[in-house]
Amino acid sequence: MSDSSFLPDDLKDEQSTERYSALKNYISEDIRRLALILIIAGFIGLGIHHFLLCITLGLILFFALQFRSLYIVNQWISQHSQEPPPDLSGVWGALLFNVYRAQRRERMMQAEMVGLIDRAQSSLMALEEAVVLIDEQHCIEWWNPAAERLLSLKFGDHKRQVLTIIRHPDFIQYFNHVNDFPDGIVVESSFHDGRYTQIKLTRFGYESRLLVAYDVTRIHKLEQMRKDFVDNVSHELRTPLTVLSGYLETLSENEEMPQRWKRAFDQMQQQTRRMNALVNDLLLLSRLENESLQAKNQIIDMAELMNQLFDDAQGYNTEYGHTLNLNLESHNDLIGSDMELASAFGNLITNAIKYTPSQGTITIAWQDRGDEAVFSVQDTGIGINPTHLPRLTERFYRVDSGRSRETGGTGLGLAIVKHVLAQHDGHLEIESKEQLGSTFKAVFPKHRLHRPESEENFVDTE
């Protein structure tokens, strides 16, 4: 029998492992054993004149030893596979060693995975954010302690449908249309009065979901305070600005005013108009935020609106001398609020006119793009550095503060545009190159479009 001992905890050194796992060594060992048995049986057979009988008995002995080893291997695999394997020689020894080594590797990997899972679970348990695992049948599988505080989950909720526990209509809508809410939703807690919770769902596997929720009550209150402050201050400023504007206009028209005073009054009027524009934009933003949940389902005649915008642009363009073009290439109308969309489109047009040097070209268009429709304003202005594009729609963000002061910009125009488009399920695309001009595109999805019946009938008859 070969010297092939197996260690339960350590697999000896690399050299020993290679020696024991080399199958050819074990096969040669079995061959040597068979040869030894046959030689001994042959000598005995020659001595007693029964050579073939002794050779046959030798073969039977060899196979009996092999069957015994097979029996031992089977017993170890079926009943004692967690223990060190028995010490066998030959092919069966190699088989036992390799099976045992594979089992040890698998156990080590399992131990590592269990440790990793334990660490992950411990970290999830320590989180202040609620974490809930939801299976493919929309039943709750697991949650951390924070979920008990935020979502009032309890022991009996295991394997219950999540929609029978969190019944807020906004959450049900979100759960059934996750892709429509990329940033999740904020809902008022049904379990704690005056508390607000941000909920984000992530799909994985076939239909399983990971729910993460955290308390945003403080952020919500601060945001509401900001809205109230802006709204109240804007309203409070409006009255004194109106009074100032009126008196300044009256005094400026006085022909007896000294020339050195007239310039000062003109500057005061200019700054008053600028503050009025700022207040009006702030009030508009406030109104848009407060009316965000109101239905916007008017059918807007885009041909009429585009012509109205074009006429207004021509009036505004008088002192700039640009060439204005109007392209109507879509027969679709829009579904939404005509006042809000007219304000957003007007902002894009006036920006293009203001920030394009004299004698430029402004093209206003309404076009189809696959299933979408696009309102675009293209100019031949000075363009915008690409580094500024991601922040253009932030409130009060200015690419060039000096240029904005010269043109009377408030820094809120694109913020208003973005807000209006978001409430109409649209988005803003900006393309710009310095010294080559800019293109602003308001893109609307298919469900916000309406084709007039006359146009449908016309297409059908064709």
UniProtKB/TrEMBL annotation:
GO terms for molecular function: ATP binding; phosphoprotein phosphatase activity; phosphorelay sensor kinase activity. SUPFAM superfamilies: ATPase domain of HSP90 chaperone/DNA topoisomerase II/histidine kinase, Homodimeric domain of signal transducing histidine kinase, PYP-like sensor domain (PAS domain). PROSITE patterns: HIS_KIN. The keyword Lipid metabolism does not apply. Gene3D superfamilies: 1.10.287.130, Histidine kinase-like ATPase, C-terminal domain, PAS domain. Its EC number is 2.7.13.3. This is histidine kinase. It catalyses: ATP + protein L-histidine = ADP + protein N-phospho-L-histidine. It is found in: Cell membrane. It comes from the Bacteria. Residues 232-448 form the Histidine kinase domain. GO terms for biological process: cellular response to phosphate starvation. Pfam families: HATPase_c (PF02518), HisKA (PF00512), PhoR (PF11808). It is an enzyme of class 2 (transferase). GO terms for cellular component: plasma membrane. Keywords: ATP-binding, Cell membrane, Kinase, Membrane, Nucleotide-binding, Phosphoprotein, Transferase, Transmembrane, Transmembrane helix, Transport, Two-component regulatory system. The lineage of its organism: Bacteria, Pseudomonadati, Pseudomonadota, Gammaproteobacteria, Moraxellales. The chain crosses the membrane at residues 34-65. The keyword Cytoplasm does not apply.
